[in-house]
Amino acid sequence: MKKLLLVAALFYSSLLFAQKQPLPFWDAIQKFKTADSSSFPAAGQILFIGSSSFTFWKDVADYFPKHKIINRGFGGSKLVDLIRYRYEVIYPYQPKQIIVYCGENDFVGPDSITANIVTERFKTLFRLIRSKYPATPLAYVSMKPSPSRQRFLEEYKEANSKIALFLKSQKNTAFIDVYSKMLKPDGSPMDDIFLKDKLHMNVKGYKIWQQAMQPYLKK
């Protein structure tokens, strides 16, 4: 009996400990909620959602001065995280357009993730967005050729192709190719458009994105 009570006590204490652990990116989401509570963004803006390439684009408004943008990128996020936090970073804002950059991080980690899995994750996110915003224009920015993730580049290309093909079958969507625009003539990633980590972009990299994205942003 004493052993059973001890096992039960250990089980419940571990359960309570697990419940106290925040979900991934909880702090980033709370910062968004705090910002919204003090000054909620007006409806009808362009909503950027995704990972650190959007998070680090602090001056994105300077690149697109004719557009009002809500930036809800949070660094390190995967498509599953956008799905998890859709009620916090997508659903509240009544955007006139949604721009997604996510998927690159999905391949990183202990699990064996394929282009097919990432494509299915994107489809799940897309359908959840459509359940809330059935006609809102949506554009997906392709995964970029980050030099620090050379081992994943073939998977990125395959996933980009599959997501582009899927979006062709959907209304009010666009696929924005930045991958090919960030390559040298020999097909390798440009050397001078990334920070020292060879993952995040410098100003030259974001200028490439600006030129690629500008024609797709809704006025």
How many strand elements? 5
What are the secondary-structure elements, in order, as H or E?
HHEHHEHHEHEHEH
Q: How far is it from the N-terminal to the C-terminal residue, by CA?
A: 71 Å
- Any idea how many domains? 1
> In terms of structural class, how would the helical and strand content be classed?
alpha/beta
Low-confidence stretches: 4-11, 13-18
How does this model look, in words?
The chain has 219 residues and is α/β, with parallel strands linked by helices. The chain has one domain (25-216): Rossmann fold (3-Layer(aba) Sandwich), CATH 3.40.50. 43% of the residues lie in helices and 11% in strands. The chain has nine helices and five strands, in the order ααβααβααβαβαβα. The chain has helices at 2-20, 26-38, 52-55, 60-63, 79-84, 86-89, 115-132, 153-168, 203-213, and strands at 46-50, 69-73, 97-101, 138-141, 173-176. The longest helix has 19 residues, at 2-20. The relative contact order is 0.12. The model is unreliable at 4-11 and 13-18 (pLDDT under 50).
Give the secondary structure arrangement, pairings included.
Blueprint: H1 2-20, H2 26-38, E1 46-50, H3 52-55, H4 60-63, E2 69-73, H5 79-84, H6 86-89, E3 97-101, H7 115-132, E4 138-141, H8 153-168, E5 173-176, H9 203-213
Parallel strand pairs: 1-2, 1-3, 3-4, 4-5
Helix pairs in contact: 7-8
